């Protein structure tokens, strides 16, 4: 029992490494930047507290649903394509196994093996699991995600966006209107810096360059949004 629990935790940690965490952080960054940019645009137009809160809340909800739905659709489409590929390869293996074996051997010849060794490797792989061998060599498919995976991915993306978006939203709730723009700016800089560090560390990137790039995008978005609000709907009075 203890061994199975340990194995389960290891599997969970494996799935939460690298690309998964990076994807969540990117979605959170999108939430921070999108909502902060919207708030700066309304602030530039002289919007009051109530309108700012309403706009930020709407951006959080709509953005989370949009991002989550798009990610679910993308992952579900990819899974459907993989399943179709599996069915196609099963048909080929059933109708022309020797041709598929030769194709696998050619793959390893192209990777640098001698024709004799490539043929031996292909035969051993086909003896163990011909479908898995063909899928990996031809399409780079190691495993088909379970049916629930696209939904969970979409939920994760939507939640990550909402978490990021909630940062400027909370600032709008608690900060006086006179300090709101400054407070949002500070919160965005701190949040984007922290998320950039997480991405850089998980992907073994330069922390400094990652922070600079992220801040340039975030602050530029906020600045342009503020100027657009100021130009298109200047405050009354």
TrEMBL record:
Signal peptide: none
Main subcellular localisation: membrane
UniProt xrefs under InterPro entries: Ccc1_fam
Superkingdom to which the source organism belongs: Bacteria
UniProt protein name: VIT family protein
Keywords: Membrane, Transmembrane, Transmembrane helix
Subcellular compartments: Endomembrane system
PANTHER family: FE(2+)/MN(2+) TRANSPORTER PCL1
Bilayer topology term: Multi-pass membrane protein
Parts of the chain that traverse the membrane: 151-171, 177-199, 211-233
Species whose genome carries this gene: Microlunatus aurantiacus
């Amino acid at each position: 029992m203890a061994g199975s629990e340990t194995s389960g935790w290891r599997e969970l940690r494996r799935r939460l490494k690298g690309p998964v965490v990076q994807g969540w952080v990117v979605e959170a960054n999108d939430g921070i930047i999108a909502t902060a940019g919207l708030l700066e645009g309304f602030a530039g137009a002289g919007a009051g507290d109530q309108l700012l809160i309403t706009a930020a809340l709407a951006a959080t909800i709509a953005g989370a649903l949009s991002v989550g739905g798009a990610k679910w659709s993308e992952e579900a489409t990819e899974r459907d394509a993989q399943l179709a590929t599996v069915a196609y390869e099963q048909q080929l293996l059933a109708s022309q196994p020797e041709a598929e074996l030769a194709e696998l051997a050619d793959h390893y010849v192209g990777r640098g093996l001698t024709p004799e060794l490539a043929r031996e490797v292909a035969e051993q792989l086909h003896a163990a699991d011909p479908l898995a061998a063909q899928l990996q060599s031809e399409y780079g498919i190691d495993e088909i995600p379970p049916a629930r995976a696209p939904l969970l991915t979409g939920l994760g993306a939507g939640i990550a966006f909402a978490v990021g978006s909630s940062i400027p939203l909370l600032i709008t709730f608690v900060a006086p209107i006179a300090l709101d723009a400054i407070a949002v700016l500070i919160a965005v800089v701190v949040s984007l810096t922290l998320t950039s560090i997480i991405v850089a560390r998980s992907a073994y990137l330069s922390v400094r360059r990652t922070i600079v790039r992220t801040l340039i995008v975030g602050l530029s978005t906020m600045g342009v949004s503020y100027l657009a609000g100021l130009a298109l709907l200047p405050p009354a009075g």
